[in-house]
Amino acid sequence: MSHEIESEFVSDWGNEASQCQNCTSFLVENEQCFCAESKTLVPPQGHCNFFQSLD
User: Fold this and answer.
1) CA 53, CA 47: separation in Å to the nearest integer?
2) pLDDT tens string 1-45
3) CA 14 to mean position of chain CA atoms
4) 55 falls in which pLDDT band (50, 70, 90)?
5) Residues 6+ apart with CB under 8 A from 8
6) What φ, ψ does residue 16 adopt, rounded to 5°?
7) Which of 21, 40, 48, 54 has its CB 3.0 to 4.6 Å from that of 9, i.e. a possible disulfide?
């Protein structure tokens, strides 16, 4: 799903429960962390306001 409004991204988020690595859009390809939502490389400990929990 593409969003016309840009997300507010933080590269080092203190709340582990809502870091990129726990989001439905987080993928690891060729040992690189990728966000399917923003279509960019991201750090696993990042966070944005499009976060959707795996749980």
Assistant:
1) 11
2) 455 557 899 999 999 999 999 999 999 999 999 999 989 999 999
3) 14
4) confident
5) 48, 49
6) -60, -30
7) 48
- Beta carbons of 7 and 36 less than 8 angstroms apart: no
**How many angstroms separate the CA atoms of 10 and 31, rounded?**
21
3 is written with which tokens?
Answer: 């969003």
**Edge-to-edge strands, sheet with 40-41:** 26-29, 32-35, 40-41
- Residues 20, 54: contact at Cβ < 8 Å? no
Structure tokens at 52: 């959707």
> Token pair for residue 53?
């929990």
pLDDT for 7:
80
Q: Which two tokens stand for residue 37?
A: 């939502």
